[in-house]
Amino acid sequence: MSTSAPQPIDQAKLHEFVMKAVGEMGAAMNAALILVGDKLGLYKAMAGAGPLTSAELAAKTKTTERYVREWLAAQAPGGFVTYDPATRKYTLPPEQAMALADELSPVFLPGFFQTVAACINDEAKISEAFLTGKGVGWHEHDHGLFTGVERFFRPNYRAHLTQEWIPALEGVEAKLKNGGKVADVGCGLGTSTILMAQEYPKSTFTGFDYHPESLQLARQAAEKAGVSSRVRFETAKAKDYSGKGYDFVTFFDCLHDMGDPEGAARHVLSTLAPDGAWMIVEPFANDKLEDNLNPIGRVFYGASTMICTPASLAQEVGLGLGAQAGEKRLSEVLKAAGFSRVRRATETPFNLILEARP
User: Fold this and answer.
1) Over the stretch 342-352, which tens digit does the pLDDT of each residue have?
2) What is the CATH number of the domain that holds 292?
3) How far apart are CA 246 and CA 68, in angstroms?
4) Is 119 within the bounds of a domain?
5) 242, 345: one domain
6) Domain containing 243: what range?
7) 60-94: buried (b, 16+ CB within 10 Å) or exposed (e) per residue?
8) How would you classify the pairing of strands 181-185 and 246-252?
Protein backbone atom coordinates (compact mmCIF):
# COMPACT_ATOMS: atom_id res chain seq x y z
CA MET A 1 0.00 0.00 0.00
CA SER A 2 1.46 3.33 -1.03
CA THR A 3 1.29 6.39 1.18
CA SER A 4 1.70 9.91 -0.08
CA ALA A 5 4.28 12.15 1.48
CA PRO A 6 2.86 14.74 3.88
CA GLN A 7 2.21 18.10 2.26
CA PRO A 8 4.30 20.97 3.60
CA ILE A 9 2.28 23.55 5.56
CA ASP A 10 2.60 27.21 4.69
CA GLN A 11 2.06 28.85 8.08
CA ALA A 12 1.00 32.17 6.58
CA LYS A 13 -1.66 30.49 4.42
CA LEU A 14 -2.80 28.42 7.39
CA HIS A 15 -3.21 31.55 9.50
CA GLU A 16 -5.05 33.29 6.68
CA PHE A 17 -7.49 30.40 6.34
CA VAL A 18 -8.06 30.02 10.08
CA MET A 19 -8.89 33.72 10.36
CA LYS A 20 -11.26 33.36 7.41
CA ALA A 21 -12.90 30.49 9.27
CA VAL A 22 -13.15 32.66 12.39
CA GLY A 23 -15.07 35.15 10.26
CA GLU A 24 -17.38 32.31 9.27
CA MET A 25 -17.91 31.45 12.93
CA GLY A 26 -18.96 34.98 13.70
CA ALA A 27 -21.28 35.08 10.69
CA ALA A 28 -22.84 31.75 11.66
CA MET A 29 -23.51 32.90 15.22
CA ASN A 30 -24.86 36.20 13.95
CA ALA A 31 -27.44 34.41 11.82
CA ALA A 32 -29.22 33.44 15.06
CA LEU A 33 -28.80 36.95 16.45
CA ILE A 34 -30.37 38.45 13.32
CA LEU A 35 -33.41 36.24 13.92
CA VAL A 36 -33.57 37.49 17.51
CA GLY A 37 -33.34 41.11 16.37
CA ASP A 38 -36.01 40.58 13.75
CA LYS A 39 -38.40 38.60 15.94
CA LEU A 40 -38.21 40.98 18.91
CA GLY A 41 -38.30 44.17 16.83
CA LEU A 42 -34.86 45.35 17.93
CA TYR A 43 -33.79 46.51 14.47
CA LYS A 44 -37.14 48.20 13.83
CA ALA A 45 -36.89 50.03 17.17
CA MET A 46 -33.41 51.30 16.32
CA ALA A 47 -34.31 52.41 12.79
CA GLY A 48 -34.34 56.20 12.66
CA ALA A 49 -34.03 56.48 16.44
CA GLY A 50 -30.45 57.76 16.52
CA PRO A 51 -27.97 56.67 19.21
CA LEU A 52 -29.43 54.46 21.95
CA THR A 53 -28.13 52.85 25.08
CA SER A 54 -28.93 49.23 25.76
CA ALA A 55 -31.35 50.35 28.47
CA GLU A 56 -33.16 52.68 26.08
CA LEU A 57 -33.50 49.96 23.45
CA ALA A 58 -34.70 47.46 26.04
CA ALA A 59 -37.34 49.92 27.22
CA LYS A 60 -38.52 50.58 23.64
CA THR A 61 -38.89 46.86 22.94
CA LYS A 62 -40.01 45.64 26.38
CA THR A 63 -37.05 43.30 26.57
CA THR A 64 -34.41 42.67 29.25
CA GLU A 65 -31.50 45.13 29.28
CA ARG A 66 -28.79 42.58 30.05
CA TYR A 67 -29.68 40.48 27.03
CA VAL A 68 -30.00 43.56 24.82
CA ARG A 69 -26.60 44.82 25.97
CA GLU A 70 -24.91 41.59 24.92
CA TRP A 71 -26.84 41.48 21.62
CA LEU A 72 -25.74 45.01 20.76
CA ALA A 73 -22.13 44.19 21.62
CA ALA A 74 -22.34 41.22 19.24
CA GLN A 75 -23.83 43.36 16.47
CA ALA A 76 -21.10 45.98 16.58
CA PRO A 77 -18.00 43.98 15.45
CA GLY A 78 -19.66 42.95 12.19
CA GLY A 79 -20.78 46.48 11.40
CA PHE A 80 -24.47 45.79 11.84
CA VAL A 81 -24.59 48.66 14.33
CA THR A 82 -22.05 51.34 15.25
CA TYR A 83 -20.82 51.99 18.79
CA ASP A 84 -19.70 55.26 20.36
CA PRO A 85 -17.49 54.51 23.40
CA ALA A 86 -17.78 58.09 24.65
CA THR A 87 -21.56 57.83 25.11
CA ARG A 88 -21.86 54.03 25.23
CA LYS A 89 -24.61 54.29 22.66
CA TYR A 90 -25.34 52.25 19.57
CA THR A 91 -26.74 53.40 16.24
CA LEU A 92 -28.35 51.50 13.39
CA PRO A 93 -27.17 53.35 10.26
CA PRO A 94 -29.83 54.05 7.61
CA GLU A 95 -28.26 51.61 5.14
CA GLN A 96 -28.38 48.78 7.67
CA ALA A 97 -31.91 49.80 8.64
CA MET A 98 -32.97 49.47 5.01
CA ALA A 99 -31.70 45.88 4.94
CA LEU A 100 -32.73 44.81 8.43
CA ALA A 101 -35.77 46.83 9.54
CA ASP A 102 -37.77 47.88 6.48
CA GLU A 103 -39.92 45.02 5.18
CA LEU A 104 -40.85 47.11 2.11
CA SER A 105 -37.21 47.58 1.16
CA PRO A 106 -35.96 45.71 -1.93
CA VAL A 107 -32.96 44.54 0.10
CA PHE A 108 -34.77 43.33 3.25
CA LEU A 109 -32.74 40.33 4.44
CA PRO A 110 -34.08 38.67 7.63
CA GLY A 111 -36.23 36.24 5.64
CA PHE A 112 -33.08 34.67 4.26
CA PHE A 113 -31.79 34.02 7.77
CA GLN A 114 -35.07 32.26 8.59
CA THR A 115 -34.23 30.04 5.62
CA VAL A 116 -30.74 29.44 7.02
CA ALA A 117 -32.23 28.38 10.35
CA ALA A 118 -34.53 25.93 8.59
CA CYS A 119 -31.58 24.46 6.69
CA ILE A 120 -29.65 23.94 9.93
CA ASN A 121 -32.67 22.23 11.46
CA ASP A 122 -32.81 19.95 8.41
CA GLU A 123 -29.11 19.05 8.40
CA ALA A 124 -29.72 15.49 9.63
CA LYS A 125 -32.19 14.82 6.81
CA ILE A 126 -29.82 16.17 4.18
CA SER A 127 -26.84 14.25 5.58
CA GLU A 128 -28.89 11.06 5.40
CA ALA A 129 -29.84 11.88 1.81
CA PHE A 130 -26.13 12.14 0.93
CA LEU A 131 -25.79 8.50 2.03
CA THR A 132 -28.97 7.11 0.48
CA GLY A 133 -29.19 9.24 -2.65
CA LYS A 134 -32.86 9.85 -1.93
CA GLY A 135 -34.44 13.29 -2.15
CA VAL A 136 -35.95 15.54 0.48
CA GLY A 137 -39.20 17.11 -0.72
CA TRP A 138 -40.09 20.74 -0.11
CA HIS A 139 -42.92 19.61 2.18
CA GLU A 140 -40.47 17.59 4.29
CA HIS A 141 -38.43 20.61 5.38
CA ASP A 142 -38.66 22.55 8.61
CA HIS A 143 -41.74 24.75 8.29
CA GLY A 144 -39.70 27.88 8.90
CA LEU A 145 -38.42 27.43 5.35
CA PHE A 146 -41.79 28.27 3.80
CA THR A 147 -42.24 31.65 5.48
CA GLY A 148 -38.51 32.43 5.32
CA VAL A 149 -38.33 31.95 1.56
CA GLU A 150 -41.46 34.05 1.05
CA ARG A 151 -40.12 36.91 3.19
CA PHE A 152 -36.79 36.79 1.35
CA PHE A 153 -38.27 36.72 -2.18
CA ARG A 154 -41.09 39.20 -1.54
CA PRO A 155 -38.96 42.42 -1.53
CA ASN A 156 -37.22 41.40 -4.74
CA TYR A 157 -40.49 40.60 -6.49
CA ARG A 158 -42.08 43.81 -5.24
CA ALA A 159 -39.16 45.87 -6.56
CA HIS A 160 -38.79 44.23 -9.98
CA LEU A 161 -41.73 42.09 -11.09
CA THR A 162 -44.20 44.61 -12.49
CA GLN A 163 -41.74 47.48 -12.87
CA GLU A 164 -39.03 45.69 -14.86
CA TRP A 165 -39.52 41.99 -15.54
CA ILE A 166 -42.97 41.94 -17.13
CA PRO A 167 -42.32 45.16 -19.13
CA ALA A 168 -39.20 43.47 -20.57
CA LEU A 169 -41.35 40.78 -22.21
CA GLU A 170 -42.76 41.12 -25.71
CA GLY A 171 -46.31 42.50 -25.54
CA VAL A 172 -47.18 40.86 -22.22
CA GLU A 173 -47.76 43.99 -20.17
CA ALA A 174 -50.27 45.40 -22.68
CA LYS A 175 -52.14 42.10 -22.67
CA LEU A 176 -52.34 42.05 -18.87
CA LYS A 177 -53.52 45.65 -18.74
CA ASN A 178 -56.33 44.82 -21.16
CA GLY A 179 -57.29 41.65 -19.31
CA GLY A 180 -55.36 38.41 -19.58
CA LYS A 181 -55.55 34.91 -18.17
CA VAL A 182 -52.55 34.03 -16.00
CA ALA A 183 -51.23 30.86 -14.35
CA ASP A 184 -48.60 31.28 -11.62
CA VAL A 185 -47.12 27.80 -11.14
CA GLY A 186 -45.20 26.95 -7.98
CA CYS A 187 -46.71 30.02 -6.35
CA GLY A 188 -46.00 29.04 -2.74
CA LEU A 189 -47.54 31.58 -0.38
CA GLY A 190 -48.93 33.54 -3.32
CA THR A 191 -46.81 36.68 -3.16
CA SER A 192 -46.04 36.80 -6.88
CA THR A 193 -49.65 36.04 -7.82
CA ILE A 194 -51.01 38.78 -5.59
CA LEU A 195 -48.49 41.39 -6.75
CA MET A 196 -49.50 40.80 -10.37
CA ALA A 197 -53.18 40.90 -9.51
CA GLN A 198 -52.75 44.24 -7.75
CA GLU A 199 -50.96 45.74 -10.76
CA TYR A 200 -53.27 44.35 -13.45
CA PRO A 201 -56.86 44.61 -12.18
CA LYS A 202 -58.45 43.54 -15.49
CA SER A 203 -56.64 40.19 -15.53
CA THR A 204 -57.48 36.95 -13.71
CA PHE A 205 -54.93 34.79 -11.93
CA THR A 206 -54.66 31.21 -10.75
CA GLY A 207 -51.84 30.18 -8.47
CA PHE A 208 -50.85 26.51 -8.46
CA ASP A 209 -48.69 24.68 -5.94
CA TYR A 210 -48.46 21.11 -4.73
CA HIS A 211 -48.14 22.20 -1.07
CA PRO A 212 -51.65 22.69 0.44
CA GLU A 213 -50.37 24.35 3.62
CA SER A 214 -48.75 27.14 1.58
CA LEU A 215 -51.93 27.66 -0.42
CA GLN A 216 -53.96 28.15 2.76
CA LEU A 217 -51.70 31.09 3.61
CA ALA A 218 -51.88 32.32 0.01
CA ARG A 219 -55.70 32.48 0.15
CA GLN A 220 -55.55 34.45 3.38
CA ALA A 221 -53.03 36.87 1.85
CA ALA A 222 -55.19 37.38 -1.26
CA GLU A 223 -58.21 38.12 0.90
CA LYS A 224 -56.21 40.62 2.95
CA ALA A 225 -54.90 42.28 -0.23
CA GLY A 226 -58.43 42.63 -1.60
CA VAL A 227 -57.83 40.62 -4.78
CA SER A 228 -59.53 37.33 -3.93
CA SER A 229 -62.31 37.95 -6.47
CA ARG A 230 -59.75 37.70 -9.29
CA VAL A 231 -57.26 35.30 -7.72
CA ARG A 232 -57.76 31.65 -6.87
CA PHE A 233 -55.35 28.98 -5.72
CA GLU A 234 -55.40 25.28 -6.59
CA THR A 235 -53.36 22.35 -5.36
CA ALA A 236 -51.58 20.92 -8.40
CA LYS A 237 -48.18 19.91 -9.69
CA ALA A 238 -46.42 21.69 -12.53
CA LYS A 239 -47.07 18.75 -14.88
CA ASP A 240 -50.84 18.58 -14.31
CA TYR A 241 -52.21 21.99 -13.38
CA SER A 242 -55.59 22.74 -14.92
CA GLY A 243 -56.72 25.17 -17.60
CA LYS A 244 -55.97 26.03 -21.22
CA GLY A 245 -55.46 29.16 -23.26
CA TYR A 246 -53.33 31.03 -20.76
CA ASP A 247 -51.98 34.32 -22.06
CA PHE A 248 -49.19 34.26 -19.53
CA VAL A 249 -47.62 31.52 -17.38
CA THR A 250 -45.04 32.26 -14.68
CA PHE A 251 -42.57 30.11 -12.77
CA PHE A 252 -40.78 31.98 -9.98
CA ASP A 253 -37.60 30.38 -8.64
CA CYS A 254 -39.02 26.88 -8.97
CA LEU A 255 -38.24 25.27 -12.35
CA HIS A 256 -34.84 24.05 -11.17
CA ASP A 257 -36.50 22.46 -8.10
CA MET A 258 -38.62 20.17 -10.25
CA GLY A 259 -37.80 16.54 -10.80
CA ASP A 260 -38.94 16.66 -14.42
CA PRO A 261 -38.55 20.26 -15.63
CA GLU A 262 -38.82 19.13 -19.25
CA GLY A 263 -42.13 17.45 -18.52
CA ALA A 264 -43.31 20.59 -16.73
CA ALA A 265 -42.26 22.67 -19.74
CA ARG A 266 -44.23 20.39 -22.10
CA HIS A 267 -47.30 20.87 -19.94
CA VAL A 268 -46.85 24.65 -19.98
CA LEU A 269 -46.67 24.51 -23.78
CA SER A 270 -49.96 22.59 -23.90
CA THR A 271 -51.73 25.16 -21.71
CA LEU A 272 -50.53 28.36 -23.41
CA ALA A 273 -52.60 30.32 -25.90
CA PRO A 274 -50.98 30.32 -29.39
CA ASP A 275 -49.52 33.77 -28.75
CA GLY A 276 -48.96 33.19 -25.03
CA ALA A 277 -45.71 33.72 -23.15
CA TRP A 278 -43.96 31.86 -20.34
CA MET A 279 -41.74 33.80 -17.92
CA ILE A 280 -39.20 31.77 -15.98
CA VAL A 281 -37.49 33.53 -13.10
CA GLU A 282 -34.41 31.65 -11.92
CA PRO A 283 -31.46 32.39 -9.62
CA PHE A 284 -28.73 34.23 -11.51
CA ALA A 285 -25.98 31.93 -12.73
CA ASN A 286 -23.36 31.91 -15.43
CA ASP A 287 -23.11 28.78 -17.53
CA LYS A 288 -19.72 27.64 -16.16
CA LEU A 289 -19.11 26.73 -12.52
CA GLU A 290 -15.85 28.68 -12.46
CA ASP A 291 -17.76 31.84 -13.35
CA ASN A 292 -20.07 31.40 -10.36
CA LEU A 293 -17.33 31.22 -7.72
CA ASN A 294 -18.35 34.50 -6.12
CA PRO A 295 -20.40 35.54 -3.06
CA ILE A 296 -23.78 35.22 -4.83
CA GLY A 297 -22.86 31.87 -6.34
CA ARG A 298 -21.74 30.69 -2.93
CA VAL A 299 -25.13 31.47 -1.41
CA PHE A 300 -27.02 29.83 -4.27
CA TYR A 301 -24.88 26.67 -4.36
CA GLY A 302 -25.39 26.38 -0.60
CA ALA A 303 -29.15 26.75 -0.91
CA SER A 304 -29.13 24.33 -3.83
CA THR A 305 -27.33 21.69 -1.77
CA MET A 306 -29.73 21.99 1.16
CA ILE A 307 -33.04 22.71 -0.62
CA CYS A 308 -33.20 22.69 -4.42
CA THR A 309 -31.30 19.57 -5.45
CA PRO A 310 -32.89 17.42 -2.70
CA ALA A 311 -36.32 18.65 -3.83
CA SER A 312 -35.67 17.59 -7.41
CA LEU A 313 -34.24 14.21 -6.42
CA ALA A 314 -37.40 13.53 -4.38
CA GLN A 315 -39.56 13.65 -7.52
CA GLU A 316 -40.06 11.61 -10.66
CA VAL A 317 -37.09 11.71 -13.09
CA GLY A 318 -35.01 13.61 -10.50
CA LEU A 319 -33.02 15.63 -13.03
CA GLY A 320 -31.41 17.71 -10.29
CA LEU A 321 -30.72 20.87 -12.27
CA GLY A 322 -29.72 22.77 -9.14
CA ALA A 323 -30.08 26.48 -8.47
CA GLN A 324 -27.06 27.35 -10.64
CA ALA A 325 -28.11 25.63 -13.85
CA GLY A 326 -27.50 28.76 -15.97
CA GLU A 327 -29.23 30.08 -19.09
CA LYS A 328 -27.71 27.60 -21.54
CA ARG A 329 -28.81 24.49 -19.62
CA LEU A 330 -32.25 25.92 -18.87
CA SER A 331 -32.74 26.84 -22.53
CA GLU A 332 -31.83 23.31 -23.58
CA VAL A 333 -34.58 21.96 -21.30
CA LEU A 334 -37.18 24.39 -22.66
CA LYS A 335 -36.33 23.74 -26.30
CA ALA A 336 -36.33 19.97 -25.76
CA ALA A 337 -39.90 20.40 -24.51
CA GLY A 338 -40.92 22.10 -27.76
CA PHE A 339 -40.46 25.82 -27.18
CA SER A 340 -39.08 27.43 -30.32
CA ARG A 341 -37.90 30.71 -28.84
CA VAL A 342 -36.12 31.27 -25.54
CA ARG A 343 -34.39 34.52 -24.65
CA ARG A 344 -33.02 36.32 -21.64
CA ALA A 345 -35.48 39.18 -21.22
CA THR A 346 -33.61 40.88 -18.39
CA GLU A 347 -31.62 40.14 -15.27
CA THR A 348 -30.69 41.39 -11.81
CA PRO A 349 -27.64 40.44 -9.74
CA PHE A 350 -29.83 37.74 -8.19
CA ASN A 351 -32.12 36.60 -11.02
CA LEU A 352 -32.26 35.51 -14.64
CA ILE A 353 -35.58 36.27 -16.35
CA LEU A 354 -36.19 34.07 -19.38
CA GLU A 355 -39.04 34.39 -21.88
CA ALA A 356 -40.17 31.28 -23.73
CA ARG A 357 -42.54 31.21 -26.70
CA PRO A 358 -44.22 28.32 -28.59
Assistant:
1) 999 999 999 99
2) 3.40.50.150
3) 53
4) yes
5) yes
6) 111-357
7) bbebeeeebbebbebbeeeebbeeeeeeebbbbee
8) parallel
